[in-house]
Write a structure and sequence with these properties.
- It is a single chain.
- By secondary structure, the chain is an alpha/beta fold.
- The chain is 36% helix and 19% strand.
- The chain contains 7 helices and 9 strands, in the order ββββααβαβαβαβαβα.
- A 5-stranded parallel β-sheet has the order 6-5-7-8-9, with helices on both faces. It has a two-stranded antiparallel sheet with strand order 1-2. A two-stranded antiparallel ribbon has the order 3-4.
- α3 links the parallel β5 and β6.
């Protein structure tokens, strides 16, 4: 039985051969060319055998899609004004989860930048640094291959140009379980996927914070 993205699932399997604990750094992105229809989010080696990591968010979305408001969210004039100043980068290795966040942002009238990995996100941040589109809010998944959200956040906090970024860690797991680790890594907030209203509230708080800090 699993609890992912605010939904409990019972998985019926023929047998469990073993439980393997893998380091994030040992998991690689899916092979190039696997395409958006693929149900894997990474690959790794276990005892010399290539093992595919299932994109559980995509599987769950196919069974019970998260509800995302089709109409723009009602915001106060102050909230609209403050959100307009947020320049957001969304980082997620799950195409479905990434799209959910992007739709929520578009419903708020916000266009954002996206990345499918922490390393790609760092490249985006570097490319935009010093431009009119310089990022001031990062919304990042935690469970990513190569570099997870905690390591990504620590890297940002150790990089002078990115130390002041507002970082919201957006996780498929219970955020209460991850709050302490997120705080230790230097994240400003942590939120469990996927709730469009709660993500909206977190983004408003992020926008207010960066405006107050003049970022």
């Amino acid at each position: 039985v699993t609890d992912v993205s605010r939904s409990k699932q019972g998985l019926h399997v023929q047998a469990v051969s073993k439980i393997v604990h893998c380091l994030t750094t040992d998991i690689r992105p899916p092979p190039f060319g696997s395409g958006n229809k693929s149900f894997i989010t990474g690959v790794t080696q276990v005892d010399g055998t290539l093992v595919q990591v299932l994109d559980i968010e995509k599987v769950i979305h196919g069974i019970a899609p998260a509800q995302i408001a089709a109409e723009p969210t009602e915001l106060s004039p102050e909230e609209v004004e403050v959100l307009a100043k947020a320049r957001i980068l969304v980082v997620d290795d799950s195409q479905v989860a990434l799209q959910q966040s992007v739709i929520t942002l578009r419903n708020l009238g916000i266009e954002c930048h996206t990345a499918r990995s922490a390393r790609e996100a760092i490249d985006h941040l570097l490319d935009l640094q010093g431009t009119a589109q310089q990022i001031n809010v990062v919304v990042s998944d935690i469970e990513m291959s190569e570099m997870d959200g905690y390591a990504f956040t620590r890297t940002l906090r150790e990089t002078p140009d990115f130390q002041a970024l507002y970082v919201l860690l957006h996780t498929s797991l219970d955020s209460a379980m991850n709050a302490e680790k997120a705080k230790a890594a230097g994240a400003n907030a942590v939120l469990t996927k996927f709730s469009s209203p709660e993500l909206t509230r977190c983004l408003i708080e992020a926008a207010r914070t960066v405006e107050a800090q003049g970022i």
